[in-house]
């Protein structure tokens, strides 16, 4: 399906972009218990505050990564890669973008999916996203054979999964918010 050069470019940029996920792993170990605790305590205001902070942090990190690649990669390509592998910078930049979704959204959306019992639905949506990823990658590669084709397929995965996950989160958050209001009969039954 792909020649050795395209495969090599994809492996190179994938290896470089995967190093960012060490940060995700560290943030995940620290923040997942915090988000689960906030959900269990029904502390939605603090949950939202923490989630917004995480979104801003991840946007900043992606901006720094993209800026670094835009500035430094041409030198890396010239001196380390001997001006080989045209298009690898673009592919790397595409593979950096999902870091925002994984850190900025998934870290707080996943605890909600677990908390509200939506894991099976999320798994099915994940399967649909994987099929989309491979379909987009294949179709783009057929018309433009480059490593960027598979990177664009990777974005196709998030184009399916992200809106679905956010819709699930929004639906559950909206359903649970009224329980926090004092006028709700389940919370204030007049015996307070």
Structural features, described:
The protein is mostly helical and 192 residues long. 80% of the residues lie in helices and 0% in strands. The chain is built from seven helices and no strands. The protein has helices spanning 4-18, 21-40, 44-79, 88-96, 98-115, 119-143, 147-176. Mean pLDDT is 81; it is low at 177-192.
Short overview:
The protein has 192 residues and is mainly alpha-helical. Helices cover 80% and strands 0% of the residues.
Give me the number of helical elements: 7
Broad structural category: mainly alpha
For the sheet with most strands, the description reads:
none
N-to-C series of helices and strands: HHHHHHH
Question: What does the radius of gyration come to?
Answer: 21 Å
Report the portion of residues in β strands: under 5%
Helix content: over 70%
Count of DSSP strands: 0
The N- and C-terminal alpha carbons lie at a distance of 69 Å
What is the molecular shape? globular
């Amino acid at each position: 399906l792909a020649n050795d050069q395209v495969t090599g470019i994809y492996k190179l940029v994938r290896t470089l972009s995967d190093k960012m996920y060490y940060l995700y792993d560290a943030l995940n170990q620290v923040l997942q218990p915090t988000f689960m605790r906030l959900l269990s305590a029904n502390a939605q205001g603090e949950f939202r505050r923490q989630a917004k902070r995480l979104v801003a942090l991840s946007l900043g990190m992606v901006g720094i990564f993209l800026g670094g690649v835009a500035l430094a990669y041409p030198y890396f390509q010239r001196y380390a890669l001997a001006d080989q592998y045209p298009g690898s910078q673009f592919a790397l930049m595409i593979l950096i973008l999902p870091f925002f979704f994984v850190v900025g959204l998934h870290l707080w959306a996943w605890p909600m999916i677990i908390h509200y019992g939506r894991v099976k639905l999320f798994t099915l949506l994940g399967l649909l996203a994987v099929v989309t990823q491979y379909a987009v990658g294949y179709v783009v590669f057929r018309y433009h054979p480059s490593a960027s084709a598979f990177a664009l397929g990777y974005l196709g995965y998030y184009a399916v999964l992200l809106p679905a996950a956010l819709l699930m989160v929004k639906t559950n958050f909206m359903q649970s918010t009224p329980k926090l209001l004092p006028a709700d009969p389940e919370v204030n039954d007049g015996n307070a």
